[in-house]
Amino acid sequence: MLALFTLGNSSNMFLLLRAHDLGVSDVQIPLLWALMSGVAALFSTHLSSLSDRLGRARVITAGWVIYALFYLLFGLLPAHVALLWPMFAFYGLFLAATEGAEKALVGDLAQRERGGTAYGWYNLVVGLMLLPASVLFGWLWQHMAPLAAFGFSSGCALLAALLLLFWVRPRHPVAA
């Protein structure tokens, strides 16, 4: 599931490239990046803590579905620069909610004496998949269309979310 999601999770630089293609000026590109990063930093503690109350898999599944919708919309988006600012802020919220929850789920699923190994595998899978994710995204963008690249990422995220929803059962379920 993680490998599938990560295969669709190419470099965020493609978001900035798409924003530029849609009319964002060179001067505003770093501001979009700062907005996304700032929102992620400001909300990461609060939104990641949702996984403590609602369950890791639920928060990650919801986040990956939101990612899928975001990427699909980003591929379909007309050239309205004003829409990009709230979308980048929203993407920052996605990052804030899922990055901590993913790592916490690794800890929940791992045997206590194998925690370091589990995090090592998590980082290995993410690290190995990020390069092909960006190469594939770039190839789809160049040889087909931006929508094909964003659609592929969206599809990977949606399928990974469905797999996570049905297959992952944490060792320590959250009380209802």
From TrEMBL:
Sorted UniProt keywords: Membrane, Transmembrane, Transmembrane helix
Residues spanning the membrane: 29-47, 59-77, 121-141, 147-168
SUPFAM superfamilies the UniProt entry points to: MFS general substrate transporter (SSF103473)
GO MF term (any one): transmembrane transporter activity
Ranges of residues in domain Major facilitator superfamily (MFS) profile: 1-176
Protein name as annotated: Major facilitator superfamily MFS_1
Provenance organism: mine drainage metagenome
